[in-house]
Amino acid sequence: MGNSRLTVREIARLAGVSVATVSRVSNGTGQVSEEMRRRVLEAIEKHGYRPDHLGRALAAGRHGALGLVFPGLSGPYFTELIQGFESEAVPSRASVHILCTHLRSDSDAQVLEMGRRVDGVAVIGGTISDPTLLRLAEMVPVVVVAGEGPGSVPSVRAENTATMAALTRHLLIDHGRTDLVFVGNPEGSPDVSERWTGFLAAHRAAGVTPPIAPVAVSLQQADGVLAAEQLLRATTRPDGVVCANDETALGVLVGALGRGLRVPQDLVITGFDDAPIAALVNPALTTVRQPVRELAAEAARLILTAVNEPERAPSGDTVLPTELVLRRSCGCPADLMTGGTGT
C-alpha cells in the first residue's frame, strides 16, 4: 500500500541501505551497485515514496525533470516562454527546473551541474558559450531556443530577418520616413542580430543610407526610456525608431510622449514580439508577432522526443513564422496584419 508521506530515511530502512544510497539512486548520481539500486527502486515502487511515474523514470535512469536556462526572468517574453515550455512538460509529468545566468560568474558551471539533474535542457540563444553548450549536449539532449545551436545541437527560433526587413521597408516606402534608427544590441542576442540585419537590408533595397550603428541598449522598458532621452535631445532628431522588442519600444514611446512629441506624426515607433500590452497602449504599437509560447513548447517536444525515443532525436534548425502587425504608432489608421513569413 502506497504512502506518499514516507521519508527518505524510511525508504532507506525498508531497502536496507543508507540514506546516501537512496539519494544517489533518486538523483541519478554517484556509483550504486545494481543490487542496491534494485532494492531502492522496489521500495520506492512498493511504498510510494515518489509518484509511480517518477519511480519508473528512476528505473530507466531518468530524473523526471527538464531544464530551462535563461539570462533572466524579467518581462512578458520570458513569462510566455515558461508557460509554453510547461504546456508540454507538465502533461508529460516532467517537472521544470529554471536557471538564470544573469550576473553569475559561474554560469557555465551551474548549467553543467543542472545537466546532471535533468533529462534534457532548453537554452536561450546567446546565454552560455558554445563550448559549454556542446559539453552539455554530450550529457543530455539540448535544444537552443531563439538562436542557432553549435555543431549538431538542434534549435527552435522565430523568423526575424525577413519580417524586420518588411517592417522597415513599410516605414521607408509606405510612410516616407528617411531617418530611422535601430534600438537594441545585436551583440547581446542572436534574435536582435538578425533583426538588425533585416533593418539594414531594407535600407539597401530602398536605396536609403542606414545609420552606421544601432543604439545598443538592453531589452527592458527602462532601456527604451534611456534611449529616447539620448535620441530626442540630439541636434538632429530621427523620424522613426525601430526597436528590437516591444518592451524597449514602449520605453521609447513613454520618453517621446513625455517630451511632448506626437506619435506617429512627429515620430514613428515600432517593436517586435506583439506582447499583449502592445495593442493596449495609445497609440497602439506596430510590431511583429512571433509565436513565443510555441517556440518553447516545440523545444520541450523536441527534448521529450530525444529522451523517450533516442532513435528519433531531432537535429537541425526549426524556424517558426512571424507576422507583421500594423497599428497606429507607425501611422496606419487601424490594426492590420500581413501574411506570415518564414518557414
From TrEMBL:
InterPro entries for the chain: HTH_LacI, LacI/GalR-like_sensor, Lambda_DNA-bd_dom_sf, Peripla_BP_I
UniProt domain HTH lacI-type: residue ranges: 6-60
Alphabetically ordered keywords of this record: DNA-binding, Transcription, Transcription regulation
GO molecular function: DNA-binding transcription factor activity; transcription cis-regulatory region binding
Pfam family, one: Peripla_BP_3
Superkingdom of origin: Bacteria
PANTHER family attached to this UniProt entry: LACI-RELATED TRANSCRIPTIONAL REPRESSOR, LACTOSE OPERON REPRESSOR
Protein's UniProt name: Transcriptional regulator, LacI family
